Amino acid sequence: MASLAPPTTDRPLLEIRDVSVALRTGNRTMVAGVSLAVRPREVFGIVGESGSGKTLLTRTLLGLQDDAYVAGGSVRFNGQDLPVNGYANKARKLLGHSIGFVPQDPFSSLNPSMRIGKQITEAIYLAKGWPMGAERTREAAIGLMAEVGIPEPALAFNQFPDQFSGGMRQRMVFAIALAQDPKLLVADEPTTALDAITQRRVIELILDRSRKHDLAVILISHNLELLRQSVGRIAVLYGGQLLNIVPSGDIGQSTIHPYTEALFDCIPTREKTLADIRSIPGEPVGAGFGLKGCAFASRCPYVVTACRTTDLPQNAGTASIFSACILGRGVH
Amino acid sequence: MRYVGQRILFSILSLCVLLFITFLLSHVVSGDPAIVAAGPNAGADKIAAVRQEMGLDRPLLVQFWIYCSNILHGDLGTSWFTRQPIASDIIRELPPSLELVFVAMVINLAVSLPLGLLTARYAGTTFDDVVRLVVMAGAGLPIFWLAIILQQVVAGQWRLLPTAGRLGFENRDFTGATGFTLLDSLMQGRFDVFADALAHLVLPAFALTLLFTAVGVRITRTAMMGEFRKDYVVLARAKGASEGRIMVRHVFANGATPALTVFGMQFGWMLGATVLVEEIFGRPGIGRYAVKAVTQSDIHAVVAVVFVVGLVFLISNLVVDIALFLLTPRKHAGA
Amino acid sequence: MRVLRRLLSFPKTNVERTAIVLGCLILLLALVGAFLVPFDPMKIDFRAKLQAPSMLHWLGTDGSGRDVLSRLLYGARLTLASTFAVIIVVVIIGCTIGIASAFVGGAVDNMLMRLADIWLGFPPLILALGFASALGASLEAAIWALIFSWWPNYARLSRMVTADILSQKFIASADALGVPTHRKVLHYVIPNAMDVMLIQIALDISAVMLAISGLSFIGVGAQIPAPEWGAMIADGRSYVSNGWWIVLAPGIAIFITAVSFNVIGDMLRRELDPTSRRR
Predict the structure, then answer these.
(1) In chain C, residues 247-266 whose CB comes closer than 8 Å to chain B
(2) Inter-chain contact C263–B136, Cβ cutoff 8 Å?
(3) Which domain does C129 fall in, by range?
(4) CA–CA gap between residue B171 and residue B97 (Å, rounded)
(5) Is the dihedral of CA B287, B291, B296, B299 positive or negative?
(6) How many CA atoms lie within 13 A of C83 on its CB side?
(7) CB-side neighbour CA atoms (13 Å) of A241
(8) In chain B, positions 227-286, which contact chain C (CB-CB < 8 Å)?
(9) Domains of chain A (ranges, CATH numbers)
(10) Do the domain assignments include residue C166?
(11) Nearest to residue C136, comparing CAs of B166, B295, B64?
(12) I need a surface site. Which of A41, A298, B130, C277 has the fewest CB within 10 A?
């Protein structure tokens, strides 16, 4: 179901060049030199182990990370430059109408003491004011709830979050994000807390919405297989570095970055025997590991001395396909 | 509703403990309660008569039973320094004290809640550090000393507020139905009396509340800090809600419940602390009554004050908890 | 040496360093201050009454001509000794009840802790007031009164710590080895409870001290010519308009002591309590 060929004609919706993110305490750089572009209507994935910097990067880019800031690089959203100085405040202004965000844990991301309906109408109000009056807003909210697949939305409207399952709550969070008609939806591990079937349904809901409403989506996950089945292109983050951007159809078929290859080898599939499933040797490095050379060098089977001394190649042209491997792996 | 039942049961249990404590104080710790009840100048035959009358020659358990049934019938004994039933003394003295505690509580909430919320939001900033320091200093001020200093400086030197008493000289004959001057004056449309009563309340209420406010700010901060870490704050920000809206509509609504429970307890503690304030400001009330009873060695009156303060404490906790339960618009799963 | 180095690494701000210096200074003065005093703190000299602070009487004299500084230094011992007396006894009684309660478990444990919960809730000052006046007003009465109203704090705390330790795996292996109860208490419970107790004690010093001086001020604690700080304030009240220093000095002494120990307690909580990483 993934659209294999990434659209290349449009101007990018979100374009980041050489972005680095640092922590406020100690100014430690955690993510460095990330360049990528997401086009309108594209479904884009970001994969990485926990600690790879994927959540930190996206949350900081959205201005939602209090303890980190954009330390360098440039960000453009929808043709508008977002200067690095005072970045968080500028980015926050886009939230609520141009960009929607879905946090990871559906069990804590809804306000437990506010009725579901109120939380959705609040989102509509914050995006658009009250152009249609309270009653029409209510109807719009109920319509949205029906659209994301909540049974008996009129009833659910007056209920509190703890009366619903995790899957239902995640749908409500989506209803809130979609209520604001964003151009870009960023979902941070939206399905990790859910069981496999519910996961599938929620992802399909996102893809369906993306197709129907010209919505671009950034899906963040540690689950490469899930992304491979859902998105067009995948960016691979490791140790705070962007190592690879690949079309999801290429994974497992053509030459890709050694780390992506290693990640893929960890996925159990029907064709693989148990012996084929290999864990990556060594311990993962966290974001901001030191940033000299390639973060994966210590675990890479193809490693040469230059990997540790050469600066990592940058995706300076925000090309749609990219590999940071200096050995040329992953470049077609 | 099971929660409400449990809560009431707990209050009844607490009442039993309170009765046990006051019984311990008046019948065991104080030595021979008959000597106490008969007063310091009584002869041996008077004491013997009192002992018989009070049932003190019977086993302690029976005495405890008599003690409880007396109290539940509203009989707290007779004060020998006012020569009145203690119950009626207390009914007369309680409203001014409650009025004082009420005003102190309003100041307390008006300072603690916003400061606690703001320091939680801006935790780790200079603002937070400064507030923490001020709060720490406030927690170290002895209430009675602060009361004396305030009285001397604000009322005595600067003449900004009245020095002592409940009402000014021109309103000394004012009476009302409830005994709460603020309420009575409003009911009678006497706004001049209301302003006068309020002016007399400001300093004692401020002195009384400072220590409690110091605790209140910290409690509120801790409660709100926990809320600011939750994902619904992130979602609210992602919705484009302003920081003010997030603080008031989202965080406060969720973090207030545990904080308000503590404020409910503070109500009773403050009533106890009136013993340190009322006498200094020459205000009538159970605090001053207790201090007077102490200096007159009228133990039954003192213990009665202990009982009443404990009772008010139990009731205010019960009311706050049930009110919070009913007002919090959320299903208490399993409760 | 290692303990000392660890302790020295605790203070993070100048406020905390100042508090530690002040706290130590106050403790030192309470210990040796009585030998340094320039005047007899109880000697009445009506010719010298109500003298403002001067080179001779640094903090002035009170309404009976007694030297305020001398009384303050004597009072440091009286006030702090009573405070520590309360805390030591309360820790012993409270912990005995708490640890025993946790070991016994079951209905007794449940009942004791319920009792402690309820007891703890009641306004401590008024409870102590009732107890002290029932005993007959004196400093000893005030000390016993505070013990009477403070014990549940430590009973609850020590029960919590003990129950926590008893539920851990190494106790199960100790059980299997047949380690007797008193050894379990000595070698497992007490070392593990130390940190938590220390935090609570540091924070309670100021609370107990404020309560003792408050009780003395009302008249159920130390009686008036005694140089206890609360009683000194009560004594100075009648002279507050023509001898402000009499009231001011002991109040500031209480204030500085209370704040110092509060800051120290707060610092200990931050450094020692793993559950309160607040930033």
Answers:
(1) 247-248, 250-251, 254-259, 262-263, 266
(2) yes
(3) 11-38+57-272
(4) 19
(5) positive
(6) 29
(7) 25
(8) 265, 268-269, 271-273, 275-276, 279-280
(9) 14-98+186-323 (3.40.50.300), 108-181 (no CATH)
(10) yes
(11) B295
(12) C277
pLDDT at A28: 84
Q: What pLDDT does A1 receive?
A: 41
Instruction: Please report which residue ranges of A266-325 form alpha helices under DSSP H.
Output: 305-309
pLDDT given for residue C194 in this prediction: 81
Tokens matching residue A85 = 């100085």
Cβ-in-10-Å burial (0-12, 13-18, 19+) of B168 comes to middle
The token pair at A57 is 């990067």
CA–CA separation, C212 and A121 (whole Å) = 56
Structural domain total, chain C: 1
Residue C31's alpha-carbon distances to A243, B104, C38, in angstroms, are 67, 39, 16
Beta strands in A96-232 (DSSP E): 99-102, 184-188, 216-221
CATH code of the domain made up of B88-327: 1.10.3720.10
Note whether B329 contacts A173, CB cutoff 8 Å. no
Are the Cβ atoms of C118 and B302 closer than 8 angstroms?
A: no
Q: Is C72 part of any domain?
A: yes
Compare CB distances from A162 to B235, B254, B331 and report the shortest one's residue: B331
| Spatial distance between the Cα atoms of A241 and A76, rounded to a whole number of angstroms | 20
The residue with tokens 């405040």 is A89
CATH of the domain at C187: 1.10.3720.10
CB contact, 8 Å: B236 with chain A?
yes
**pTM of the model as a whole:** 0.84
CB atoms within 10 A of CB A196: 8
**Count of Cβ atoms closer than 10 Å to residue A323 Cβ:** 26
Query: For each of chain A's 332 residues, which pLDDT tens digit applies?
Result: 444 445 445 688 999 999 989 988 888 888 888 999 999 889 999 998 888 888 999 999 998 888 889 988 889 998 888 888 888 888 888 888 889 998 888 888 899 888 899 999 999 888 887 767 888 888 889 998 998 888 899 999 998 888 888 888 888 998 998 888 899 999 988 887 777 888 888 888 888 888 888 899 999 998 888 888 888 899 999 888 888 888 887 776 666 788 888 888 777 766 666 666 666 766 666 665 555 788 888 888 888 888 888 888 888 777 788 888 887 766 55
Inside any domain, residue C46: no
Q: Tell me if chain A has a CB within 8 Å of the CB of B7.
A: no
Q: What stretch(es) of chain B map to CATH 1.10.3720.10?
A: 88-327
- C45 within domain boundaries: no
Q: What is the dihedral of CA C179, C182, C184, C189, to 10 degrees?
A: 180
